[in-house]
Amino acid sequence: ETLRNFVDIGNEFETDCQLIEWLFEIISEELTKYEKKLFSRFITGSDTFGIFGLKSLKPRLTISKSTKSENSLPSSSTCTHNLKIPEYSNKKLLKQKLLYALYECNQSFYS
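Request: output the structure for the sequence above.
Response:
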């Protein structure tokens, strides 16, 4: 089962949106195990998605488009499991901004 099966994509994205494809590739193929824990914490406030993973997440993980510029970081609402991402112009920038947000969020959890 793929990540896509357990994620709702906001209506503001086209079905075949390149940004969403990049995001799925980064999360599935490029993040380390530790960075995936940081991603889970960023989205839910917890290190894991639970014993059954994303498929048991309630409410489901939703990806929404942020209206902020590509100079901004992704943000999330942990109560609603909503990841908001600006429309980045390339995959490298998306990964850079996502990782920065994940590591900074981790700092704030334990500061």
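Strands lie at 7-9, 61-65, 75-77, 82-85.
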